[in-house]
Design a protein that fits this description.
Elements lengths: L5 E6 H11 L4 E4 L6 H9 L5 E4 L3 H15 L3 E4 L4 H5 L1 H9 L4 E7 L18 H6 L4 E5 L5 H13 L6 E6 H4 L2 E6 L13 H13 L3 E5 L7 H11 L3 E2 L18 H8 L4 E5 L4 H7 L15 E6 L4 H4 L4 E4 L2 H12 L9 H16 L5 H11 L5 E3 L4 H9 L8 E2 L10 H11 L5 E6 H4 L5 H8 L4 E6 L4 H10 L14 H7 L3 E5 L2 H14 L3 E6 L20
Parallel strand pairs: 2-3, 2-4, 4-5, 5-7, 6-7, 9-10, 9-11, 11-12, 12-13, 14-15, 14-16, 16-17, 17-19, 18-19
Antiparallel strand pairs: 1-8
């Protein structure tokens, strides 16, 4: 039992907020409502320790918390009303679950007497806890103020231990408004890392030492292990690649850091694949099989070694050698076990260099998106943040935007949550106010969160948004044209004047029509470090699909 740091009379809302402060939370995103007034009152009184950013939509609050978590590795926190407020955040919660990010939702409930009665109390839904527990890591109800510190600490532990993920705490409306004697606690302790099995470690090391052409694939679970992964890669002279979440773990301007497009070229002759903190979506759901056919027991070659802190992953995709371990621990242990034992074959670095050059040449075909990305990469500092989105330029960035530092490529992962990018970028900027942040987004996705232009202006969140306007849902239009005899229902847009709309919200608005025009406008906007929107007008009849280099189909998909 943890010893109380302090015991005093306080509201349940204050007990929750003070426990967040004790756990190092410095920012909360959200919208206050009747059931959450005690939380926001406590946030107001604790504003010297914790900052509150009010959003214009609940979904944006959760996406901002996701962006905060993704860019820092720390807990992202938001608070909204129950029922419809929580449901409005479900897409962001599923994104945090899919991307394994620690996000905490702090919400309320109907009054205690109404729980489970179905009387139609304000914001009542049939079973909020059950609903949340079906899509996040853990959801729990606090029954009285005295229990708040222990339960919030437990929520922090669950969210940030093992495989990170989203959690939720709630209190009934009337319980949240009560006061009682509360003993505040020290911050939550995280679970210890699993111990690495010695026999499996030896098998994995022997396999890597004997490999002719090993390759390392990393995911978001390796973002904190960049130094260890690079040291292991250098010992093995193995290329390191990623699809989305693991990008930047090894810089793509390092001789061993390769894009997924170059990675596919190298994969074709790989004899041992080492996956670290990744589901291995790209090689085993896109490269090697029909994407509609699930593969759980991959055949060799390549022999598959997996390092993952989640033991369930070893059943979902069964490797030849499983190492249940934290990515940093696993990479360090493997380095110790292979060091000095392997002589890479002649030409290993040249082969990687050739694949990188091949991939660069192929990616240039994806016009004009690759050329816009080249400009953004040139202008954005290497430690600047790039937030992608489900648009043609975003998909192209999966393989054609070099990522140079850990955590600086922010993606929604496999959930593919259209519209996540702009509000997520605001959360990234809130977490890193001293770093430049560029959000790229299509006109379709931008309209999911356009109202947050006002949030950016009000709180001085200097995200520079490059909005690619082709007046359509580009992927959907292309698919319908190809597979449904040219019928393109509900894909064409009548858009607002985006620069004028931005200006009306207090955000600088610009319009460009080419990559060359973008360069000076983007550079000036980043220099000002103020919210800005740059519309890039795209001709949908001439843009080229990036999907041939994600699915590796060599016709225009």
């Amino acid at each position: 039992m943890l010893k109380n740091l302090e015991t005093r009379l306080m509201s349940a809302g204050e007990a929750i907020v003070q426990t967040l402060v004790a756990n190092g939370v410095d920012t909360v995103f959200g919208i206050p409502g009747a059931q959450t007034y005690p939380i926001f009152d406590a946030l107001d009184r604790a504003k010297s320790s914790i900052r509150t950013i009010g959003t214009r939509h609940e979904q944006a609050a959760a996406y901002m918390a996701f962006g905060y978590a993704k860019a820092t590795g720390r807990l992202g926190v938001y608070s909204v009303v129950p029922g419809p407020g929580v449901l409005n955040t479900a897409a962001a919660l599923s994104t945090a679950w899919g991307a394994s990010q620690p996000v905490l939702c702090v919400t309320s409930q109907v009054p205690r007497d109404y729980l489970g009665k179905g009387r139609g109390a304000l914001h009542e839904i049939p079973d909020q806890l059950a609903t949340l527990n079906s899509l996040i890591k853990w959801a729990v109800r606090i029954d009285n103020p005295a229990d708040a510190p222990e339960i919030v600490n437990e929520a922090v532990r669950v969210a940030t231990s093992g495989r990170p993920g989203p959690v939720s705490v709630e209190m009934c409306w009337d319980d949240l408004a009560t006061s009682g004697m509360v003993g505040l606690l020290p911050p939550a302790d995280l679970d210890p890392h699993p111990e690495i099995g010695k026999a499996d470690l030896k098998r994995a090391a022997d396999m890597l030492v004997a490999a002719e052409r090993p390759m390392i694939f990393v995911g978001s679970g390796a973002q904190h292990a960049a130094g260890e992964v690079l040291a292991l890669a250098e010992e093995l002279k193995a290329p390191v690649t990623a699809f989305r979440g693991g990008r930047g773990v090894v810089s793509e301007d390092h001789e061993l850091g390769v894009s997924s497009l170059a990675g596919h070229d190298l994969w074709r002759e790989c004899d041992v694949l080492l996956g670290i903190g990744t589901r291995l979506e790209m090689p085993y759901m896109r490269w090697s099989v029909d994407m509609f056919k699930e593969q759980s027991e991959p055949l060799a070659p390549p022999h598959l070694i997996r390092v993952d802190i989640d033991p369930r992953e070893m059943e979902r995709l069964r490797p030849h050698v499983p190492l249940v371990a934290d990515s940093r621990d696993g990479a360090a242990a493997l380095l110790g076990a292979v060091k000095g034992r392997r002589t890479p074959p002649d030409g290993a670095i040249e082969r990687i260099r050739n694949s990188k050059a091949w991939a660069e040449e192929k990616a240039d075909w994806v016009k004009p998106h690759k050329q816009y990305l080249d400009v953004i990469r040139d202008v954005l500092p290497r430690d600047g943040f790039f937030v992608e989105e489900l648009c043609q330029t975003g998909f192209t960035s999966n393989f054609a935007y070099p990522v140079l530092e850990p955590r600086t490529y922010v993606s929604c992962g496999f959930q593919g949550t259209l519209g996540f990018g702009f509000p997520t970028a605001l959360g990234v900027k809130a977490a890193h106010p001293d770093k430049p942040v560029v959000s790229i987004i299509g006109d379709g996705g931008f309209m999911f969160g356009v109202q947050e232009l006002s949030t950016a202006a009000q709180y001085g969140l200097g995200v520079v948004t490059v909005l690619f306007n082709n007046s359509t849902f580009g992927n959907v239009r292309r698919d319908l044209r190809k597979f449904y005899k040219g019928r393109t229902i509900a894909t064409e847009f009548q858009n607002p004047d985006f620069p004028a709309l931005a200006e009306s919200c207090g955000v600088a608005g610009h319009r460009v029509t080419s990559p060359e025009e973008l360069r000076p406008v983007l550079a000036a906007a980043l220099e000002k470090d103020e919210p800005a929107l740059i519309e890039a007008v795209i001709d949908k009849t001439t843009e080229r699909s990036p999907w041939r280099y994600i699915l590796m189909f060599y016709d225009d998909v």
